[in-house]
Design goal:
single chain; about 250 residues; alpha/beta; Rossmann fold; SIR2/SIRT2 'Small Domain'; 2 domains; 6-stranded parallel sheet; 3-stranded antiparallel sheet; about 35% helix; elongated; binds 2'-O-acetyl adenosine-5-diphosphoribose; histone deacetylase activity, NAD-dependent; metal-binding; NAD-dep_sirtuin_deacylases
Length: about 250
């Protein structure tokens, strides 16, 4: 497959960069077979709108349904594998002195690919927390009750992900905002740039004079403002970017 040509000016800036921040969205997991957020749900869950299930109200109304929806998503994600785009971001982390990978994705694929400097802005679907205490729960007895109960207080367990209308984890957001304010190059990859405060991060970097690069097959509200717009799939463009910046050096 012919490799996608990367603008030489971008290659040059990336080769000499000390600080790089990357924001990823569901588009980066699409090529691993994990549906993007605004793509139609499939199968049993087709009749449910994620915005109807991923809320505290939905959980209060029907905790069993919400827990089972996330269990179904966990099963789909377990069958997925990180792709060459995820692995290219691991290489970038190894090459750049101060690198931050900020993800909106809850699927854990960046971690499975080997990324370490990872900020999970919207949580992680494989972690659970107590709905009453809002504190993580590592282990619980599986007595068949759905959802399971908190071993500390007996409250219901819920996925440790950010639901609509909920605040993002403060420490993760603070780290992400600091990275956006201090980076030389900001990549926005596979996100529709619709959901705040994550969507604000590339604009913060732009406002402070950073080089902003978007990788997406479709235009987004960020597209008219970026320094470089690489139109296409993350799984194709990221390996080409890494090869032309470091391997070919
Ligand atoms: P979306 O589903 O809103 O957007 C996915 C983006 O990925 C779109 O812009 C697609 O064009 C792009 N895309 C699709 N395939 C791609 C590929 N192979 N390579 C690169 N890009 C591709 O997903 P997000 O922007 O991540 O929040 O959604 C942001 C947040 O909205 C999610 O984290 C979730 C949802 O509400 C919470 O759950 C709190």
């Amino acid at each position: 497959m012919r490799e996608v040509p990367i603008p030489s000016e971008l290659v040059n800036r990336l080769r000499h960069a000390r600080q790089v921040a990357v924001l990823t969205g569901a588009g980066v997991s699409a090529e691993s077979g994990v549906p993007t957020f605004r793509e139609a749900q499939t199968g049993l869950w087709a009749q449910y709108d994620p915005q109807e299930l991923a809320t505290p109200e939905a959980f209060r109304r029907n905790p069993k349904l919400v827990w089972e929806w996330y269990a179904w998503r966990q099963e789909r994600i377990r069958q997925a594998e990180p792709h060459a785009g995820h692995r290219a971001l691991v290489t970038m982390e190894q090459q750049i002195p101060e690198f931050s990978l900020i993800t909106q994705n809850v699927d854990g694929l960046h971690r499975r690919a080997g990324s370490h400097q990872l900020v999970e802005l919207h949580g992680n679907i494989f972690r659970a927390k107590c709905f009453s205490e809002d504190r993580p729960v590592e282990n619980w007895s599986d007595d068949g009750e759905i959802p399971p109960r908190c071993p500390r207080c007996g409250g219901l367990l819920r996925p440790d992900v950010v639901w609509f209308g909920e605040a993002l984890p403060a420490a993760a957001l603070h780290t992400a905002q600091h990275a956006a304010r201090t980076t030389e190059i900001f990549f926005s990859i596979g996100t529709s740039t619709l959901v705040y405060p994550a969507a604000d991060l590339p604009f913060v970097a732009l406002g402070l004079g950073a080089t902003v690069v978007e990788i997406n097959p479709q235009p987004t509200p960020l597209s008219p403002h970026v320094t470089f717009s690489l139109t296409g799939a993350a799984g194709e463009i990221l390996p080409a970017l890494v090869n032309q910046t470091w391997e070919a050096a």
